[in-house]
Amino acid sequence: MSPFLSSGWRPLPIEVVKALDLSSSDVARWAELQRGQTRLDSPFLSPHWALAVAKAQAEKGDEVKIAIQRDASGQAVGFLPARVRQDVAMPVGAPMCDYQALVTAPGVTMNPRELLSALGAHRIDFCHMLADDVTLARHGRGQTDSWVVETPEGYEAYAAERKAAGVGVLKDIDKKRRKAEREVGPCHFTAMSQSRAAFDQLVAWKRVQLLLTHQTDLFQTPWVNRLLDHLFERREPDFGGGLYTLHLGERLAAVHLHLRGEHTIHGWLIAHNPDLERYSPGLMLFQDILKSMDGTPYMRLDLGTGDYRFKRELSNAQQKVVFGFLGAPSVPTLVRHAAYGVRQMVEALPLGRVSEIPGKAMRRIDLLRGLH
Hints:
Blueprint: E1 15-18, H1 24-35, H2 47-56, E2 64-70, E3 76-85, E4 88-90, E5 103-104, H3 112-119, E6 123-130, E7 140-150, H4 155-164, H5 169-183, E8 187-190, H6 196-212, H7 222-233, E9 240-248, E10 251-260, E11 264-272, H8 281-292, E12 300-305, H9 309-314, E13 317-327, H10 331-347, H11 357-371
Parallel strand pairs: 4-6, 11-12
Antiparallel strand pairs: 1-2, 2-3, 3-4, 3-5, 6-13, 7-12, 7-13, 8-9, 9-10, 10-11
Helix pairs in contact: 2-7, 5-8, 10-11
């Protein structure tokens, strides 16, 4: 049994501090708790993610806060970052944040009502909460899969496992690579590229993609650009961005900006040259990244949520995440409860794509709330 669950352990009241006022000792303790648990090995659960977002959003005041649970000795045993606006707490960095969870010592939970009170919030919203989070995940209203490629024994062992499972995606990528090299030029892969031109091209391609699919242009939001610029420049081994590029001959074919944790690379922003789409350069780049992980501390490539064929075929593991909210009796809670009620009712009806409208509307509203 965890010492934190013994009858002698009593938590102190939850403390809340501004993210930019977080002490260096608490940052180190947060990282220590995260490092000790594989389930928490995501750059989005790092203290450095919360700090990077807080700096990018500094002009908005002190909205990014950290809830800290301490034991009787004063040692921190749990952390939850949140952005609090108008009595509602939301994930730090949303909609750019792909995971949420309380980072705690094993066996430690936070009292949900005390957490709300400490944050000064009537409601806590979450969209990608780890399904095994014992404090907040039980308040989920639905769940989905995050797709993960695990390569603890290296790329060749992973490729053999995919082949044995009857998945031919890697063989198909090899065929397209040979065709691309014959028709366009030799492949050249760069990991941790420092090319600002490639970074700018990634953003340009993503903006066109968002426009063509009638999605919100994230890059019109100043704090998003400040965050991306900071992470592009950040090179620490246990946290930061990583720009990966693939050229065919002299032509830039694909660019990915991923986030790096201690042992995880998290697929984040990906784009490719539309003129070379027939060669699937984005998939070729994913394959190159997986090969480049051999001999490094990285043992997993997290592809995130989204039911895309390439994610299903590349992945050999899944991580359940939930969406929902925790609320105290209040108007914001009643509004959210009503919205989910309508969504669940419509999704239960045999209306085809019409059933998806309430969920899409809620996600769009949450996206706009996060951006502004």
